[in-house]
Amino acid sequence: TVAGAGAGYAGAVGFFSGGCGSFALGRRFLARARRLVRDDDVRDRVHYAMMRQLHHVLEGDFGDAQVAGDALLDEGLRYGRLWEVTNALNLDGLRRLYRGDWDGAATCAERLAKIADQYRYDLAASAQRFLLAMTRLERRDLAGAIVALDEYLDEHAEPAFQVSALGHRAVAQWLAGDVAGARASLSRAERRLAGAERLLPYHAADFLRARQILDTVRLAEPGAGRAQRRAAARSRSAALRAARHVAWRRPEVLRTAGCEAWLTGRRDVARRRFAESLAAAASLGMRPEHARTQLEMARLLSATGDSAEATALGAAARDAFAALGLAAERDAAASLC
Q1: Which residue from 192, 221, 252, 273 has the least number of CB within 10 angstroms?
Q2: What is the band of 2 on the pLDDT scale with cuts at 50, 70, 90?
């Protein structure tokens, strides 16, 4: 086999699975790459392993078997494959974070910081800072998340990174009760979109999920009418399309779609969306998002007087949040039991 051929085919996986969201084509090139990877070629092996990890994580296989192993990453570092190792650690950190594996995500962040320091590698420093911001957001340290995202925004002028970070900032502000601030962040993201030639699916999904949330929130405001319902429906459709290509966004986007249906009186549709959100979170092992969907269902049902189901869902969410160490959300769920 020609040296580097496996890495060449693996690179196409990044284009199709990571850039175009075509997992079927990504799988075909992944299979071809595997046949061409040479055991004596570290570049081939590390590049293939990282692209394989990217494909599976984006498509929705969060299993440990899809992660590039520590021994291979260490070998990659010895041979100067900093780009592949950094991206593999970043992906693994996000995967662990969204599953509620706080310690595992912290270990990935520490390894990224070490690479950044030892090799003076800016990409590793950037990935470590982003992972820190996402950790704060996922653990609902909202003030800390906003500070970390502002630092990230100051350091990254690229439109795609700005759109992604501003989407996360808007969500953090909304969670903190600052809806006006969240809408201002989203407006900033929309202006950055004008300077972005094309967003990768995972950058676009960060923005579209925030827009869906804020358009859905409008439905509960006084005076909401047909225009707001149309906007929420458009945002939901765009967010769902994006989530097909970015697995870790599915539980939340489906949950928000359930809230939209509930607020517009389509209770059967809402229940289906909530069930899909729970199923997506369970299949990915995303324990925080699974509990958040249970909590949202409990809140809505409690407001309609369905106390038995609300209590059961609240209790399940409370126990899950307690196990994850998410105290504020645990207390919110406990108030519905």
Answers
A1: 221
A2: very low
